[in-house]
Write a structure and sequence with these properties.
Belongs to the ABC-2 integral membrane protein family. The chain has 252 residues and is mainly alpha-helical. Helices cover 75% and strands 0% of the residues. The chain has helices at 3-15, 19-40, 54-74, 77-85, 88-94, 99-127, 139-158, 165-180, 193-201, 203-216, 223-250. The chain is globular and about 60 Å long.
């Protein structure tokens, strides 16, 4: 095993004590979302959206949002705890572990958590008949790529602040608007042109677009490659930024 895997193992051992509660929420949240938005709101959207039912159109957006919100949830308060409260990062840095090992192992655990949430959402969506193609399985790697694009830069942000009040600001003024205006609940073409380009610049819209093409069995075209590369660029840039911020905190 590499040092990063040992760090991931540490987080998995801790997760062993709390996994039951998270599994319940991972199943209940998709179920309630399907009933509330897909079935409830969808009943009022007569004719569907872009030739499919509102439930089928909205589900890939909800799955992508779940990946982003799960990644951000794991890269905010848990990272803050490792720096400020429990100080696990400092204990790991005192061991023969590099900053890259500490960051890589924790990011790997974050991706594991997102993978389980996306898989649970995908299972519930299949039971509701919201998936139109076997290519829906591609949502799993898309969700991981999207999660890395969100978790890495947010971990860098968390490592740069000293109070969790700044994390609440991030959720209110960045995460919530991004979730509302990235094509999850309505096409971004309905937005004014300025806001539309803001949505295109954010990683969530690209994850939503790729996930929607997968679940509906549509040909994403050559732009899918560029969208995947764009998400990868977010993840790589976030990694280097997080590594720099972690190093400034852990290495004297």
């Amino acid at each position: 095993m590499t040092p990063s895997l040992y760090v991931m193992e540490y987080h998995l051992v801790n997760y062993r004590r709390t996994w039951r509660a998270s599994v319940l929420s991972s199943l209940v949240l998709p179920l309630l979302t399907m009933l509330g938005f897909g079935v409830g709101v969808g009943a009022y959207v007569t004719g569907g959206v872009e030739g499919v039912s509102y439930l089928q159109w909205m589900v890939p957006g909800l799955i992508a949002t779940t990946a982003v919100q799960g990644a951000i949830g794991e890269s905010t308060w848990p990272v803050m705890s490792c720096f400020e409260w429990v100080k696990i990062y400092f204990a790991q840095a005192a061991a023969p572990l590099r900053v890259a090992d500490i960051l890589g192992g924790h990011l790997a655990f974050m991706l594991f958590r997102v993978f389980t949430s996306v898989a649970a959402f995908l299972l519930i969506a299949a039971l509701f008949g919201a998936l139109r193609s076997v290519w829906a399985l591609a949502v799993l790697p898309i969700g991981l790529l999207l999660a890395l694009a969100a978790a890495a830069p947010v971990a860098a942000y968390t490592a740069s602040v000293s109070s969790d009040s700044y994390l609440a600001i991030l959720l209110r003024f960045a995460v919530l608007p991004m979730s509302l205006f990235s094509g999850v609940f309505f096409p971004v073409e309905s937005l004014p042109e300025v806001l539309r380009w803001v949505a295109y610049a954010l990683p969530l819209w690209h994850g939503v677009d790729l996930s929607r093409a997968a679940t509906l069995g549509l040909d994403p075209g050559p732009e899918a490659v560029w969208q995947a590369l764009y998400l990868m660029a977010w993840g790589i840039a976030g990694w280097f930024l997080a590594h720099w911020r972690y190093r400034s905190r852990l290495v004297i």
